[in-house]
Amino acid sequence: MRALIGAATTAALITAGAGCGAQQGADGPAAAEPAGQEAGPPVTLPVAVGGDLYVGGHHVPGRWYAAGGRGTHWIALREDRTWWWGFDEEPQRIDGQVDQSVVISPSGGYTAHVLTEPDGGWTLVGADTEWAGEGLGGVDLPRGGSSPPPRAVAVTDDGLVVAGGPHFQWLWRPLVDNATVDLAETAPGQVVVGSTDAGLVVNEGRYDRTDGQQGSPYLATIDSDGTLTRLGPLPTHDVLEAGEQWIAYAPPGTLGGETSGIPELQVQRRDGSAAGRLTAPDGWVFLAPGFRWESADQLLAVLASEDGQTERLARCRPDTSTCEVVLPAG
Predict the structure, then answer these.
(1) Class level of CATH domain 33-328
(2) I want to staple 330 with a disulfide (CB 3.0 to 4.6 A). Which of 52, 66, 133, 221 is the partner?
(3) Strand partners, 240
């Protein structure tokens, strides 16, 4: 399941006043510079490594916690806890109070998040990541004492947005009719707990106590009427990323407390024909969250030194069980 921004947040961006405007450009850092790379073909995903952000082969100035997106369409959380986005390597500021996770579609074309309003209410908003950052509008979410606050869970490449809180989960259709669908009616007992490049991560249970660590999670797509279609089973996990052919994950119980680095990642083919593990190079651990499929058979993974002082980016291949460092930290 995607958790792209640090250990507690996810990816994405947007903003504007009442949540219905376009993404806003602002006081971004100076122009990006070409980034050095140690080995292999250029990295094709926006990545944050050791506080450095790389987009389209360029190093973006500033200090960054993490990034999400595809190609040169990206979002990232800066060191000062502000959100930024871009359709190239130039950062654009995301205005508004964003207290919960932000999401970006697998192809990087759409984003969504929940905006906290001055009166304490919540507005679900969306935008595209093209040059103008066109806003998709917004919709008010249920009010009341909700802890934790509602969040955007996923946005698909069709611009469908799943959002919810402890007591509800909705599908919002900003590109269809701006209406919402109550998933308690169209997918009763099913909870969308996250998103991957290959589809949504879904599990059975209650909205306030369901994740991927137990039960029988599965990969699914969602239609505009709120219908979930199963694509295949998923292993239980603390963190999981599903791609075109492979799944990489940290098993339940491997993370928690102060632990965010693990020496191994489990991998398996989506069709069940092969399984194995990736081992971090000597002296390093995998950060989790911190890995994503760059292509059908290549995984990009952030490595941390055992003392936690240094980070690197590795490109791993599950078919050969190998990892090669491709980016140093600045």
Answers:
(1) mainly beta
(2) 52
(3) 249
pLDDT at 12: 30
Q: Mind giving me the DSSP string for 167-232?
A: TEEEEEETTTTSEEEEHHHHSTTEEEEEEETTEEEEEES-TTS--SSSS--EEEEE-TTS-EEEEE
pLDDT > 70 in the chain, percent: 86
Q: Find the length of the chain.
A: 330
> In angstroms, rounded to a whole number, what is the distance separating the alpha carbons of residues 249 and 266?
5
State both tokens at 39: 């080995």
DSSP letter (8 states) at residue 287: E
Average of pLDDT values for 231-242? Answer: 97
Q: Cα(275)–Cα(278) distance, rounded to whole angstroms?
A: 10
Sheet with 322-328: strands ordered across: 261-262, 284-295, 298-305, 311-317, 322-328
13-43 residues labelled b (16+ CB within 10 A) or e (exposed) = bbbbeebebebbbeebeeebeebebeeeeeb
Give residue-wise pLDDT tens across range 150-196.
Answer: 999 999 999 999 999 999 999 999 999 999 999 999 999 999 999 99
* Gap between the terminal Cα atoms of the chain: 28
CA pair distance 135, 133, nearest whole angstrom? 6
User: Position of tokens 């909870």?
Assistant: 191
In this predicted structure, what is the pLDDT of residue 100?
82
Cis amide prior to 148 (ω within 30 degrees): yes
Q: Which residue from 239, 164, 238, 240 is spatially nearest to 207, judged by alpha carbons?
A: 164
Would you list the DSSP string of 47-76? Answer: EEETTEEEETTEEESS-EEEEEEETTEEEE
Structure tokens at 257: 């407390």
Domain ranges of the chain: 33-328
